[in-house]
TrEMBL record:
<dbReference type="GO" id="GO:0140825">
    <property type="term" value="F:lactoperoxidase activity"/>
</dbReference>
<dbReference type="InterPro" id="IPR002016">
    <property type="entry name" value="Haem_peroxidase"/>
</dbReference>
<feature type="binding site">
    <location>
        <position position="69"/>
    </location>
    <ligand>
        <name>Ca(2+) 1</name>
    </ligand>
</feature>
<dbReference type="InterPro" id="IPR019794">
    <property type="entry name" value="Peroxidases_AS"/>
</dbReference>
<feature type="binding site">
    <location>
        <position position="66"/>
    </location>
    <ligand>
        <name>Ca(2+) 1</name>
    </ligand>
</feature>
<feature type="disulfide bond">
    <location>
        <begin position="34"/>
        <end position="83"/>
    </location>
</feature>
<feature type="binding site">
    <location>
        <position position="73"/>
    </location>
    <ligand>
        <name>Ca(2+) 1</name>
    </ligand>
</feature>
<feature type="disulfide bond">
    <location>
        <begin position="67"/>
        <end position="72"/>
    </location>
</feature>
<protein>
    <recommendedName>
        <fullName>peroxidase</fullName>
        <ecNumber>1.11.1.7</ecNumber>
    </recommendedName>
</protein>
<dbReference type="InterPro" id="IPR033905">
    <property type="entry name" value="Secretory_peroxidase"/>
</dbReference>
<comment type="similarity">
    <text>Belongs to the peroxidase family. Ascorbate peroxidase subfamily.</text>
</comment>
<dbReference type="InterPro" id="IPR010255">
    <property type="entry name" value="Haem_peroxidase_sf"/>
</dbReference>
<feature type="domain" description="Plant heme peroxidase family profile">
    <location>
        <begin position="24"/>
        <end position="211"/>
    </location>
</feature>
<keyword id="KW-0349">Heme</keyword>
<feature type="binding site">
    <location>
        <position position="71"/>
    </location>
    <ligand>
        <name>Ca(2+) 1</name>
    </ligand>
</feature>
<keyword id="KW-1015">Disulfide bond</keyword>
<dbReference type="Pfam" id="PF00141">
    <property type="entry name" value="peroxidase"/>
</dbReference>
C-alpha cells in the first residue's frame, strides 16, 4: 500500500471544504454540543484501521463519492449513542476519511465541521456525477467543474490514489485493448504500463502455482 505524500494535506483539504457554501463550516463545530464526537470517531477509526489497514483507502474514496453527489451527506454512525441528533453523518465521514489516513501513517489536516446531511439520495445521480475510470480527461474536467472544482483541484485530488488498490477491470483495457485492436493507451506512461503488466503475470503465477 502506498503512502500519501505531504501534499495530500492540500488535496484532502479541498474536499473538506466542498459543500461549504450551504453550511457554515468551522473548526470544532461540535465542541459545545458534542465535545467527545471527534474523539469517538478517532478512537473507532484507529482501532479498526489497525486490524484492517486497507479500509483507510476505501473510506477515503467513500468520502469523495459522497461529496460528488449533492454535497457531503453520508451513512448513519456511532456518534448517535453519545449525542443523538447532533452530529451530521457528513461530518463523521469527513473525519473518518482524515483519521483513516492518519492512522495508516499519512499526513494530518484540520477538518472544519458543521455540514448538514442531505435528505435525497439517487443512484442515477451517483452514476452521472461521479467520474468513471473510463472517462477521458475532458470529461473529468467537466465533472469536476460541475462541482466548482478546477484543473488544479482535479490534479491534486487525484493524488488520493497514492493509497489503495484498483481492480484489473478498471484499467486493463488501457493496457491490452484500448481501441479494440489489442493495443495500449498511447497516453499511458509506457514504463508504468510495463510495470502493471508485469504485476499481472506475478498475480497469475501466485494464483495458479502457489495457492
Ligand atoms: C479524478 C477522478 C477519479 C476517478 C476517475 C477515480 C477512479 C478510481 C478508480 C477506477 C478506482 C479503483 C476502483 C477499483 O477498481 O476497485 C479508484 C480508487 C480509489 N479512489 Fe479514485 N477516482 C477519482 C478521484 C478520486 C478522489 C478525488 C479521491 C479522494 C480524494 C479518490 C480516492 C480513491 C481511493 C482512496 C481509492 C482506493 C480505494 C481502495 O483501495 O479501496 N479518487 N478511483
Ligand atoms: C471525451 O469523451 C466524451 C464523451 O464520451 C466525447 O464526447 C469526447 O469527444 C471525448 N473527448 C476527447 C478529447 O476524446
Ligand atoms: C478487444 O476489444 C474488441 C472490441 O471491443 C473485442 O471484440 C475483442 O474481443 C477484445 N479483445 C480481447 C482480447 O479482449
Amino acid at each position: 500500500m502506498g503512502r500519501i505524500g505531504y501534499f495530500g494535506i492540500l488535496i484532502i483539504g479541498l474536499l473538506a471544504f466542498m459543500g461549504s457554501t450551504e453550511a457554515h463550516l468551522k473548526m470544532g463545530f461540535y465542541n459545545k454540543r458534542c465535545p467527545k464526537a471527534e474523539k469517538i470517531v478517532n478512537d473507532f477509526v484507529k482501532q479498526h484501521i489497525h486490524n484492517a489497514p486497507s479500509l483507510a483507502a476505501t473510506l477515503l474514496r467513500m468520502h469523495f463519492h459522497d461529496c460528488f453527489v449533492r454535497g457531503c451527506d453520508a451513512v448513519k454512525s456511532l456518534v448517535e449513542a453519545e449525542c443523538p441528533g447532533i452530529v451530521s453523518c457528513a461530518d463523521i465521514l469527513t473525519l473518518v476519511a482524515r483519521d483513516s489516513i492518519v492512522a495508516t501513517g499519512g499526513p494530518f489536516w484540520r477538518v472544519p465541521t458543521g455540514r448538514r446531511d442531505g435528505l435525497i439520495s439517487k443512484s442515477s445521480e451517483a452514476l452521472s456525477k461521479v467520474p468513471s475510470p473510463f472517462d477521458n480527461f475532458t470529461t473529468l474536467q467537466t465533472l469536476f467543474a460541475n462541482q466548482g472544482l478546477d484543473l488544479k483541484d482535479l490534479v491534486l485530488l487525484s493524488g488520493a490514489h497514492t493509497i489503495g488498490i484498483a481492480h484489473c477491470q478498471s484499467f486493463s483495457n488501457r493496457l491490452y485493448n484500448f481501441t479494440g485492436i489489442g493495443d495500449q493507451d498511447p497516453a499511458l506512461d509506457s514504463e508504468y504500463a510495463a510495470n502493471l503488466k508485469a504485476r499481472k503475470v506475478q498475480n497469475y503465477q501466485r494464483q495458479h502455482y502457489y495457492s
